[in-house]
Amino acid sequence: MDVDYDRIAKHYDAHRRAGDLYIDTLLALLGACSGRRVLELGAGTGNSTAAITGRTGCTMTALEISPGMLRQAAAKRIPARWVRASAAQLPFKGGAFDYVFSTYMLHYIGDLAGLMRECARVLEKGCAAFVTAPASFIRDHPMNEYFPSLAGVDLARFQRIEAVEAALRDGGFVRVGHEQRARAPEPVNEAYVEKVASKFVSTYDLLPPGEFEAGLARLRSDVRERRRPGLTVTWETVTIWGWRE
Ligand SMILES: C[S@@+](CC[C@H](N)C(=O)[O-])C[C@H]1O[C@@H](n2cnc3c(N)ncnc32)[C@H](O)[C@@H]1O
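Above: inputs. Below: predicted complex with S-adenosylmethionine.
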């Protein structure tokens, strides 16, 4: 993993919340499961964990690899069993869960086929769902103009919807599908510039030396001088799922 989550754990929540659009999709899928034993992979500081446990009567197990992120999550006292382990090798017996999900964790998994096999094993019957960034969002992002390597970095690490769906089918999942959703456009204003300055998404940590500073300076100046009125960001998310029957 190139992003040091132990280092950024303390500041992770400053600009990150669970997104209502994908939480709604995840809740609808959980509602269609016959049981309520839930496993979250790469739970981070517990934002999605809290959103799901707060709105359902599920039994939640939250798995996370970074001790720093786990410490931040623990402070929130979310009613879940926290497990430090890698999603690549799940320390659970077969059939232990009815629902497995992750939000923005999948792009850290090199071996998608292996992950799907592990999910199929711990599910036996039920649903696996993965929230991630769609290629259209990455390709059309207005910040690409300011940070020329941004799209290349993310297109190289976020898997395509088709690849995730194929891995689910190969792993023995059926009724594979996805739902892509978008928020209303938000203005690129001073507040948005501050989010970029805080590197609210990990991609900004992965740019070549100097590119972040140069792009941020140009963005700041354009917004301050009102050279780009009407510039907006439309946040898009996709949830990809499959069922074990
Ligand atoms: C972008 S964060 C998302 C955190 C949280 N799901 C959210 O939506 O706020 C990615 C998380 O995945 C975790 N992660 C990365 N690779 C992992 C792996 N192999 N097993 C478990 N967690 C992993 C990271 O430590 C980090 O907390």
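The chain is about 40% helix and 20% strand.
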